[in-house]
Amino acid sequence: MSVISKANIEFWFFQYHEGLLSESEKAQLMNYLYEHPEYNEDFVLWANTKLIDDVAEDTTQLEKSILRQRGFSWPSITWKQFIGFSSALLILIGAVLLWPKDSSEQGLAKALKNAKIKTVEPILVSSNSTKENALRHVWKNLSAAQIEEHTNFNELEGSSLENHSPSASTPESGTTLDTKMNVSNDNSVDENPVASKPSAEDATVPSSLTFSNQQVSKKSDAKAGSLKNQKQKKMKYPKVKQKTKLDLRPTDEFLKDNPDL
Amino acid sequence: MNASEYNQYVKAYTSCLYRFVLKMVRDKDEAKDLVQESFVRLWEKGKGLQPEQIKSWLFTTGYRLSLAHIEKSKKFVSEEFLSDFQTQAIDNPDLKSIIQESLLLLSEAQKSILMLRDYEGFQYKEIADILEISEESVKVQLFRARQKIKNHLKDLKFVL
Question: What is the pLDDT of residue A199?
Fold first, then answer.
């Protein structure tokens, strides 16, 4: 440290108040002030150059604002809220994962195309059954999904069923349900009491109907073949009149046999 | 640094950082915004900092943001403002208020060094790191700042 002089006395004052002087240097400065009392006032003024903490403003609100801004209010979240939020999130994820990716007709056609196809014996309908019974058998063999999404009633006219004679009793001439496709589908259950019942793993999903009527058989065969075609994009099912109107008017022969009427 | 530690830093350093920034920008709302921004940056970029580095890091960020804000808003002290301040200081010769308002006489660097030294008790080395200047420069700037304040006090004493 240099010798104290008029040129550097203020730097000595500065260092004294900053605590940068050693004990010997402090003693040296005190001796200088004792010998030069005109610097005492400056020495005191230098002591007052330190800033005084004047900010007494409450920054609690600012702290809360900062914490809110960053979303660190975790302790304020109750366990119930946390569990509820987590449950909702899990349900949402589950719904997304389990949602069918392709529920359209194209998706079902693709699934049928890739499914294992088996041929089973024709389903026989007893000769006493009516047209309604025949349709009921067919209906039972359809899976719920097929009924809802893929049944097309626009093709098979009711008149084709009306041409069928209910008196036919042989398998060749009787009403048959030809289930040519057997798709592995756990959701479908074959409840046909006549045909050989497949195992649960091989529940029958009929894709076509074959009646004694030649026209209907052709259409059914065409449909079975079309399912094998990969380019087929829309499954078509025969249209059936839901309400068959029976002609109850007496025939001319009946009137001749019963003149009383 | 996890959320709990961050919360502790917010509670520990918000007040002093706000005081520092407020002296720089002289606007409470702006100061609060800058303090918030400093803590946001601490969370985003201060993951690898050691606990003993947090305070100086915050003040460094606050100082840079304050300088940028001053530069942007062009809040320079006008001569008119200084004359008003001097009149006010004479009317109210309270040593505390005089010293506080004498900060207006200092440059931004001198004011920052003075506040970091007197308010926060930073060492020269820490101040040098915060302001990104040499330790010797901190010492020289601090000497000049105190000298200005001492001279201002001396002038006011003669006036009174």
Answer: 44
Do the two domains B1-75 and B77-160 of this chain adopt the same fold? no
In a domain, A147, yes or no: yes
Altogether, the residues listed in chain A come to a count of 261
Q: Which residues of B touch A57 (CB under 8 A)?
A: 18
Report whether pLDDT(B14) > 60. Answer: yes
At which residue do the structure tokens 């062009």 appear? B74
Contact criterion met (CB < 8 Å) for B18 and A55: yes
Nearest to B3 among A54, A55, A72 (CB): A72
Q: What is the per-residue pLDDT across A211-222, written as a single tens digit (0 to 9) for each?
A: 444 554 555 555
CATH architecture of B77-160: Orthogonal Bundle (1.10)
DSSP string, chain A: -PPP-TTTHHHHHHHHHHT---HHHHHHHHHHHHH-GGGHHHHHHHHT-SPP-------HHHHHHHHHHHT--GGGS-HHHHHHHHHHHHHHHHHHHHS-S--SHHHHHHHHHHS-----PPEE--TT--HHHHHHHHHHHS-HHIIIII--TTSS-HHHHHTS-TT--STTTS-EE--------TT-----SSSPPPPGGG---------SSHHHHHHHHHHHHHHH-TT----------SSPPP--SPPHHHHHH-TT-
| Predicted complex ipTM | 0.74
d(CA B18, CA A56): 11
- One CATH from 1.10.1740, 2.60.40, 1.10.287, 1.10.3470 for B1-75: 1.10.1740
User: Which chain A residues contact residue B14 at CB under 8 A?
Assistant: 59, 62-63, 66
